Amino acid sequence: MEPFRIHILGCGSALPTLKHFATSQIVEVRGKFFMIDCGEGTQIQLRKSKVNFTKIQAIFISHLHGDHCFGLIGMISTFGMLGRTSTLHVYAPADLEHLLRSQMDFFCSGLEFCVEFHAVDTMRHQVIYEDRSITVESIPLQHRIACCGFLFREKATLPHIRRDMIDCYNIPLSQIDNIKHGAGWTTPDGVEIAHEKLTTPSDPPRSYAYCSDTRYMPTLHTLVAGVDVLYHESTYDKACAQRAKLYYHSTSEQAAMVARDAHVGKLLLGHYSARYPNEDALLAEAKEVFPNSFLTTEGMTVKV
Known about the structure:
Helix content: 25-40%
Number of helices: 10
Strand content: 25-35%
Structural class: alpha/beta
Distance between the termini: 11 Å
Order of helices and strands: EEEHEHHEHEEEEEHHEEHEEEHHEHEE
Number of strands: 18
Shape: globular
Largest sheet: 7 strands, mixed
Low-confidence stretches: none
């Protein structure tokens, strides 16, 4: 099974602390690398993660609060200094485009690569990116400004052909692709071997949903139902539920309610308020509702 990993670069919220960096993640799937959000300090964390800058194909920005996008222009500038030539795709709310173009004109003249901007309608749930391996869907969220999450879905792969069957029936290499696509095999003496006997089922497709920042949404679980891993912001504990509602954030208990109702495999908590010296209480409250809950921290790599 090819890698599908989440690299946590930052999981803090808006107020800088000595413990957490602003929000950013790398989604690594089938050899492709995508960045979600790009707060201040992301480049330092990217260096620590050992993910090569040049491997990042696209950057997805959830919304235009600084702790999710202030690092973007610096990242683009560094790409230029590293000699990038391949197109960088940026997916973000439409209002970012003119701001980004102005910054690039001032700070990043002479880039040898193209930055292609893709405006995301944060009010619609739709596929915004697709290639041979994955799709990425937007997830409408409820924050103080236009905001959406992102759902990465792996596409189904072909069945695995059994090596012992290849050897047993002397199947030529030229026929392997046909068999993977559903064909059987007929031996030289006319015996027909069914496709199902020659193969084993493909690996089940995996999925990852990223939801930050948002007020608790009772219907959100319908959009992330059954995902293998869910990242949901958990800025506050339940004692601050009214504050969370006021500022359009969620508690860890509410994040766990979404995970429970969506029947996800694993819940990752993040976007912690600076008011907490540690996040143990947040984790405890989440586990009461959804036991398979985990705290994120910088440098963590999560397998999907």
